[in-house]
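haha ok so turns out i had the wrong file open the whole time. this is the CORRECT one, sorry everyone. sequence first:
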Amino acid sequence: MKIIIEKDYEAMSRTAANLLLGKMYNNHRVNLAITAGATPVGMYQMLVPEVKGRSYLENVHFYNFDEIPIVGEKQGVTTRNLTTLFFEPAQIAEENIHELNETNWESQDQRLQAAGGLDLILMGIGSDGHFCGNLPGTTKFGDLTSKVAIGPKLKEGLAHEVGGDSSKVPDFYVTMGPKSVMQTRQLVMIANGQKKAAIIKEAFFGPVTETIPSSVLQLHPDLTLILDEEAAAEIKDLL
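then structure:
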């Protein structure tokens, strides 16, 4: 496990952008699964001008690792957000975007294998230790891509993702499971802010347990954590 601690959010975002660009600069096909949400916003703002219009990056293919369908709409939450944050402003070709959704999740692992596997997953970490859509109590370490039921409490919490209308939140979402993620060649996790400090310590310096799903990532042979100083506050003395 490699841990990179940067001074602040901007520096952390630049390091993450540079790491992804370095992965993209290969002659062979490159398969990347990338994250939405608030944490990578700065990184995408830095990446867009480096990717837009670059014909030599046509070998790079993009995947989403989870999806919350939106009732009555074509795109789910993750794909919609990735489109806004990165795909549209960077002008990523449609044929280079490979959507995981509620109709094809059962074939996700086979499709990835046929494409040569994922070279890298960029993800964040939840305050409960979840990664991708693997929340505590929803998946097991041995699970591949899965369909996960959304209970009443989670459904209420997800309403903000669909504009506040809980009727648009489905009864399930889909996610690459821990086993699927662990088959990826390189894992990169980004985290910023004091609110992530405690879970970073618990997940990566505590026991491997399904109650803290991200703890399994300790076992991956090529994991990089990119943190700002606040997110690293509780582990600095452990390094």
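DSSP finds seven helices and ten strands in the chain.
again sry for the mixup
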